[in-house]
């Protein structure tokens, strides 16, 4: 298939299925004379939680990787120049296109996962032994490192979660900003309450960000056996953030293809005191890179009828509730096509 403007526009539509922090979708695309530009849209920033814009650029990296997957699926090779102009730091990538006879990258097979992937905040069963090693390998393609955090450091991570929660809870500006992205009805952006645990289920898992109460019924004290994968980078610059976003997308889509449920987490890496503990846990787990960026919960989705043993040792049943899908901004709002 040739890289005509309709094909590229359609690929951008799929790129925008990418996850983004609080579903802010901070991307602006421009297609001009066969070149596609990706910019970070600072008007959609969350300055209290993410003053440096790290999570905005990670989100754009995820969209860039989603674009690669779609193009590869259409037998188009993307040639990506990242940060091509020092004078325009918000211009993250310029992409040109070349047709190819057959798919070259393993990512081409991920296309079906773009639609199926979603952030799942319910407790999971543990992923099958060995499944995480394969997933971690995908991160290195984009210069990030992924390691699985050993459950033996659970107490340290719980301490990190407490520190992050204390800092967030004492900051009304953080809560106002977070609440401004929570949606009670389906909308084009933000996190719908249907994707968030209800009031009774909140704080069930120490590894989850506390959100305002949602509609996802999980139950009391249900054990979470999710694995935690941490993505880290060599340095802490916008290039690292864009790369780690691509690595995160690759890992999430490969997990989806393997029927694993996932959720990205950044509440422990956006607060310096908890990030320091995460860095320590990572290095005790064998990580050599010093900049923790994103954690990903990974596990097996439980069947609604599954009985699970809660923390107190009694049997409960998983409620038949799935997280609601999140909206996306219309293509016309995020893509400009000019001649
Ligand atoms: C950089 C980044 C950070 C995120 N941080 C969190 C988080 O801390 N907690 C959480 O539950 N979800 C987090 N998410 C998931 C987003 O809320 C989710 O991607 C968005 O609402 C869109 O929903 P979807 O992933 O189901 O498409 C994060 C996603 C990204 C890309």
Automatic annotation (TrEMBL):
It comes from the Bacteria. Residues 312-339 are annotated as: Disordered. It comes from Rhodococcus erythropolis (strain PR4 / NBRC 100887). This is NAD(P)H nitroreductase. PANTHER family: NAD(P)H NITROREDUCTASE RV3131-RELATED, NADPH NITROREDUCTASE. One of its GO terms (molecular function) is oxidoreductase activity. Gene3D superfamilies: NADH Oxidase (3.40.109.10). NCBIfam families: Rv3131_FMN_oxido.
